[in-house]
Amino acid sequence: MRVRSAAKNSDIVYRDLHKAIVTMELTPGAPVLERKLTEQYGVSRTPVREAVLRLVEDGLVEVAPKSGTFVARIPLSVVREALVARRALEEVTVRAATELSSESQIMQMRAIIQHQQEMADAGDEEAFHQADDKFHASIAAAARYPGIWKMIQQVRIQVERYRRLTLPQNGRMPMVVKEHTAVLDAMAARDADAAVARMNEHLDKLQLDISIFRDLWPDYFAIDPSLDEKLFAGK
């Protein structure tokens, strides 16, 4: 019984820290203090250490010898690779959804975009983000490839942290709504090539903006010179 309780405590600590890191509530470089967590959750060190170890494996926490444990910086090489993978996968779902989606599904996606616009107007970044995910998941469902959205979620942990930095930028949320609308308009017109092009433009914006946000928050990102040299050439 005690073992199950310890495992449950570890899961709770892991879940909460994972969410806090991905949503940027805990920013890169922030200390992860074992003693503070044991007091906060009223648990022993064992479940806290187990949770932290899982976060290290996720690439969200790093342990620096003689320095401590910290929220990991966002690895740009991983972000770039994940964006490339997502672009390829969403091209498949958008093309299929354009051909297979029903009028009812198109209307449901328009309702999602409308809700996203309302959340943008309200400045509710978390609800906006959730609606964003729902829109992309709805495309995968309409394409009859719901598993592809699950695959995208598996490779996008670091991308999510980066995306959270982009949303507060002035005009970013309305721009996303406009881009989603362009994708859906092409889908509704049954123009698969145009829908794919609009989706690629939407996703490529994240790729193109990497250098901008890296310059705004240099301490938040980890750069691999051998992989990111071209990205920052001339900077």
UniProtKB/TrEMBL annotation:
The keyword DNA-binding applies. This is GntR family transcriptional regulator. GO terms for molecular function: DNA binding; DNA-binding transcription factor activity. CDD domains: WHTH_GntR (cd07377). PANTHER family: GNTR FAMILY REGULATORY PROTEIN, TRANSCRIPTIONAL REGULATOR, GNTR FAMILY. SUPFAM superfamilies: GntR ligand-binding domain-like (SSF48008), Winged helix' DNA-binding domain (SSF46785). Keywords: DNA-binding, Transcription, Transcription regulation. The keyword GTP-binding does not apply. Residues 7-74 form the HTH gntR-type domain. It comes from the Bacteria. It holds the Pfam family FCD. Signal peptide: none annotated. Gene3D superfamilies: GntR ligand-binding domain-like, Winged helix-like DNA-binding domain superfamily/Winged helix DNA-binding domain.
